[in-house]
């Protein structure tokens, strides 16, 4: 079948399932994910496995627009007010998850140190996409939402660095270290810096050209072109598409005198793209892996969430953050998907099979659970914080 046929099926099923689940107050993104699971290659097989691979370009495009939207929240005057709090919370929630999963694997589940360190580092990563869509759907606004957006934007950068260090230590313990600890730290830092620099340069050029554009249709075309170019050049240079597109949005927000014009214009283009993105994510969720994770897999899922919630609370207490941030922000950081899956693939290739394959299976199973319950937990957190009326 033609790819356009499968895109149509994805959009129809995503909209229908979201509409049905809205009757019981579940977020739209949960409906999209469940629709993908149902029509995907592991249940009804309406969309086969080879078709799922051909739809990957839609997922890459959607992530770029999501990151662009996150970056737009990085207004310097707001960062000056919340910068210390956001940085502390991000570090504590990411490393809190890493530390708690590490300790649980070593002392409760009696797992080898290389395995424990590697899977613990993956626990830091979150998935901003689901959280963003929940915020958009319910038009959540307030200090809690602003803090949440800034935390999820920086979270993966810390997670990638923590993973590089942990994997290098794990390989050294096994005796198969292919790189030094210094390089393990330096490599992700170089990736982050180059992604930010390229995003800033593109944003600077975009802000200049955007001033000369008059019509909305022309501005929309220019915006899409810049976001697609940011995604493409990041993939070409093996950089982070998320960070590049975030920096593109952040630069526009701070350099343009009429940034809302640049940012609101994409809302005319993104709704079907986001439906497709999350429904395609559902296509890739293999429920059969849930049966093979065992107690260790459940431990990973539980202790990761506890670590994030505990880290947020401690950092919030130290920085005297608002009470609703301390109490509920960790609940909004449950989703985990793309970055974690990517890191688990690196772990599978870099460690012996008895470690790498187990880590891959546990992370994939965790993704299934986190992606299905994550949007609901984000919604609950936003309601408890008072940002969804």
TrEMBL record:
Superkingdom in the source lineage: Bacteria
InterPro entries reported for this sequence: Cation/H_exchanger_TM
Main location class: membrane
Domain Cation/H+ exchanger transmembrane per the UniProt entry, residue ranges: 12-369
Membrane topology classification: Multi-pass membrane protein
PANTHER family listed in its UniProt record: CATION_H+ EXCHANGER DOMAIN-CONTAINING PROTEIN, NA(+)/H(+) ANTIPORTER-RELATED
UniProt keyword annotations, A-Z: Membrane, Transmembrane, Transmembrane helix
Protein name in the entry: Cation:proton antiporter
Xref: Pfam families: Na_H_Exchanger (PF00999)
Compartments in which it is found: Membrane
Transmembrane stretches, start-end: 6-22, 29-48, 54-76, 88-109, 115-136, 157-186, 192-210, 222-253, 273-303, 328-347, 359-382
